[in-house]
Amino acid sequence: MKRTDYISWDQYFMGIAMLSAERSKDPSTQVGACIVDENNRIMSVGYNGMPAGCNDDTMPWGKVGAPLDNKYFFVCHAELNAILNYRGGSLKDARIYSTLFPCNECAKAIIQCGIKEVIYCSDKYSNTDSTIASKRMFDMAGITYRPFEVKGRKITFDL
Fold first, then answer.
1. Gap between the Cα atoms of 101 and 119, Å rounded
2. 118 phi/psi in degrees, rounded to 5
3. pTM, whole model, 2 decimals?
4. What number of helices (H) and strands (E) belong to the chain?
5. Catalytic residues
6. Nearest-5° angle of CA 83, CA 98, CA 124?
7. Which pLDDT score, from 0 to 100, does residue 63 have?
8. pLDDT > 70 in the chain, percent
9. Where residue 153 falls among pLDDT bands split at 50, 70, 90?
10. Are the C-beta atoms of residues 27 and 55 closer than 8 Å to each other?
Protein backbone atom coordinates (compact mmCIF):
# COMPACT_ATOMS: atom_id res chain seq x y z
CA MET A 1 0.00 0.00 0.00
CA LYS A 2 1.36 3.43 -0.92
CA ARG A 3 1.85 6.11 1.69
CA THR A 4 -0.87 8.72 2.02
CA ASP A 5 0.89 11.54 3.85
CA TYR A 6 2.80 12.88 0.83
CA ILE A 7 2.62 16.58 -0.01
CA SER A 8 0.32 17.97 -2.71
CA TRP A 9 1.57 19.47 -5.98
CA ASP A 10 0.78 22.96 -4.63
CA GLN A 11 2.78 22.26 -1.46
CA TYR A 12 5.67 20.89 -3.49
CA PHE A 13 5.90 23.82 -5.91
CA MET A 14 5.37 26.49 -3.25
CA GLY A 15 8.05 24.72 -1.22
CA ILE A 16 10.41 25.05 -4.19
CA ALA A 17 9.52 28.77 -4.43
CA MET A 18 10.16 29.18 -0.69
CA LEU A 19 13.50 27.39 -0.93
CA SER A 20 14.44 29.57 -3.92
CA ALA A 21 13.69 32.68 -1.85
CA GLU A 22 16.43 31.58 0.52
CA ARG A 23 18.98 32.43 -2.23
CA SER A 24 18.01 36.12 -2.11
CA LYS A 25 20.58 38.45 -0.61
CA ASP A 26 17.99 41.18 0.02
CA PRO A 27 18.12 41.95 3.76
CA SER A 28 14.43 42.92 3.99
CA THR A 29 12.45 40.87 1.46
CA GLN A 30 13.16 37.40 0.11
CA VAL A 31 10.85 36.23 -2.67
CA GLY A 32 10.96 33.02 -4.69
CA ALA A 33 9.07 31.81 -7.75
CA CYS A 34 8.61 28.46 -9.48
CA ILE A 35 7.11 28.01 -12.96
CA VAL A 36 5.41 24.69 -13.73
CA ASP A 37 3.87 23.23 -16.88
CA GLU A 38 0.49 21.52 -17.24
CA ASN A 39 2.14 18.14 -16.54
CA ASN A 40 3.49 19.32 -13.16
CA ARG A 41 7.05 19.59 -14.39
CA ILE A 42 9.22 22.41 -13.09
CA MET A 43 10.20 24.69 -15.95
CA SER A 44 12.13 27.40 -14.09
CA VAL A 45 12.77 29.03 -10.74
CA GLY A 46 13.87 32.48 -9.63
CA TYR A 47 14.42 34.72 -6.65
CA ASN A 48 14.79 38.46 -6.17
CA GLY A 49 18.29 39.76 -6.65
CA MET A 50 20.58 42.00 -8.62
CA PRO A 51 20.96 41.39 -12.37
CA ALA A 52 23.66 38.94 -13.44
CA GLY A 53 27.02 40.66 -13.75
CA CYS A 54 26.13 43.38 -11.24
CA ASN A 55 28.20 42.96 -8.10
CA ASP A 56 25.67 42.61 -5.30
CA ASP A 57 28.35 43.58 -2.77
CA THR A 58 28.48 47.09 -4.24
CA MET A 59 24.82 47.53 -5.24
CA PRO A 60 22.44 49.33 -2.85
CA TRP A 61 20.13 47.11 -0.78
CA GLY A 62 18.39 49.84 1.23
CA LYS A 63 14.75 50.85 0.91
CA VAL A 64 15.14 54.60 1.48
CA GLY A 65 17.16 57.45 0.06
CA ALA A 66 17.59 58.80 -3.44
CA PRO A 67 16.42 56.46 -6.23
CA LEU A 68 19.97 55.64 -7.30
CA ASP A 69 20.93 54.94 -3.68
CA ASN A 70 18.28 52.29 -2.90
CA LYS A 71 17.42 48.91 -4.36
CA TYR A 72 14.23 49.64 -6.30
CA PHE A 73 15.76 50.63 -9.66
CA PHE A 74 18.12 47.66 -9.57
CA VAL A 75 16.59 44.49 -8.08
CA CYS A 76 15.12 41.97 -10.47
CA HIS A 77 12.03 40.34 -8.95
CA ALA A 78 11.66 36.59 -8.48
CA GLU A 79 8.87 36.18 -11.04
CA LEU A 80 10.77 38.04 -13.75
CA ASN A 81 13.94 36.11 -12.94
CA ALA A 82 12.05 32.82 -13.26
CA ILE A 83 10.69 33.91 -16.66
CA LEU A 84 14.11 35.08 -17.85
CA ASN A 85 15.84 31.95 -16.51
CA TYR A 86 13.68 29.68 -18.66
CA ARG A 87 15.52 28.48 -21.76
CA GLY A 88 13.05 25.95 -23.16
CA GLY A 89 10.76 27.99 -25.42
CA SER A 90 7.19 28.95 -24.63
CA LEU A 91 5.71 29.37 -21.16
CA LYS A 92 2.19 29.35 -22.58
CA ASP A 93 -0.38 27.83 -20.20
CA ALA A 94 2.16 27.43 -17.37
CA ARG A 95 1.49 28.20 -13.70
CA ILE A 96 3.71 30.34 -11.52
CA TYR A 97 4.04 29.86 -7.77
CA SER A 98 5.30 32.97 -5.99
CA THR A 99 5.87 33.62 -2.33
CA LEU A 100 4.57 37.19 -2.83
CA PHE A 101 1.79 38.47 -5.10
CA PRO A 102 3.45 39.82 -8.27
CA CYS A 103 3.96 43.54 -8.74
CA ASN A 104 2.58 45.31 -11.81
CA GLU A 105 5.87 44.98 -13.72
CA CYS A 106 6.05 41.22 -13.11
CA ALA A 107 2.34 40.93 -13.91
CA LYS A 108 3.01 42.38 -17.36
CA ALA A 109 5.79 39.83 -17.96
CA ILE A 110 3.56 36.98 -16.71
CA ILE A 111 0.79 38.02 -19.09
CA GLN A 112 3.12 38.56 -22.06
CA CYS A 113 4.77 35.14 -21.78
CA GLY A 114 1.46 33.26 -21.59
CA ILE A 115 1.42 32.03 -18.00
CA LYS A 116 -2.21 31.27 -17.19
CA GLU A 117 -2.31 30.97 -13.39
CA VAL A 118 -0.62 32.62 -10.40
CA ILE A 119 -0.54 30.92 -7.01
CA TYR A 120 0.81 33.18 -4.28
CA CYS A 121 1.64 32.78 -0.61
CA SER A 122 1.48 36.37 0.64
CA ASP A 123 -0.57 39.33 -0.55
CA LYS A 124 0.76 41.76 2.05
CA TYR A 125 0.76 44.65 -0.45
CA SER A 126 -2.84 44.06 -1.58
CA ASN A 127 -3.83 47.69 -0.96
CA THR A 128 -0.98 49.19 -3.00
CA ASP A 129 -1.49 50.64 -6.47
CA SER A 130 1.01 48.13 -7.88
CA THR A 131 -0.92 45.09 -6.68
CA ILE A 132 -4.27 46.60 -7.61
CA ALA A 133 -2.88 47.21 -11.12
CA SER A 134 -1.60 43.61 -11.26
CA LYS A 135 -5.01 42.21 -10.40
CA ARG A 136 -6.73 44.52 -12.88
CA MET A 137 -4.41 43.35 -15.67
CA PHE A 138 -4.73 39.68 -14.68
CA ASP A 139 -8.53 39.99 -14.72
CA MET A 140 -8.52 41.67 -18.13
CA ALA A 141 -6.11 39.11 -19.60
CA GLY A 142 -7.94 36.10 -18.14
CA ILE A 143 -5.10 35.08 -15.82
CA THR A 144 -6.40 33.29 -12.76
CA TYR A 145 -4.82 33.88 -9.37
CA ARG A 146 -5.41 32.25 -6.04
CA PRO A 147 -3.83 32.15 -2.62
CA PHE A 148 -1.79 29.14 -1.62
CA GLU A 149 -3.70 27.18 0.99
CA VAL A 150 -1.46 26.52 3.97
CA LYS A 151 -2.26 23.09 5.40
CA GLY A 152 -0.08 23.35 8.51
CA ARG A 153 2.47 20.84 7.25
CA LYS A 154 5.95 21.56 8.56
CA ILE A 155 9.02 20.17 6.85
CA THR A 156 12.52 20.79 8.16
CA PHE A 157 15.86 19.53 7.00
CA ASP A 158 19.52 20.29 7.53
CA LEU A 159 21.61 21.60 4.69
1. 8
2. -120, 125
3. 0.95
4. 4, 5
5. 79
6. 130
7. 94
8. 100
9. confident
10. no
Query: 103 vs 57, 122, 153, CA distance in Å?
Result: 25, 12, 28
Q: By three-state DSSP, how is residue 94 classified?
A: coil
Cα 93 from Cα 96, distance rounded (Å): 10
Q: Are strands 117-122 and 32-36 parallel, antiparallel or unpaired?
A: unpaired
Read off φ and ψ for residue 83, nearest 5 degrees: -65, -45
Q: Which of 16-25 are b and which e, b meaning 16 or more Cβ less than 10 Å from the residue's Cβ?
A: bbbebbeebe
Paired with 65 in beta bridges are none
Q: What is the pLDDT of residues 74-110, one digit of tens each?
A: 999 999 999 999 999 999 999 999 999 999 999 999 9
If you average pLDDT over residues 17-26, what whole number do you get?
Answer: 97
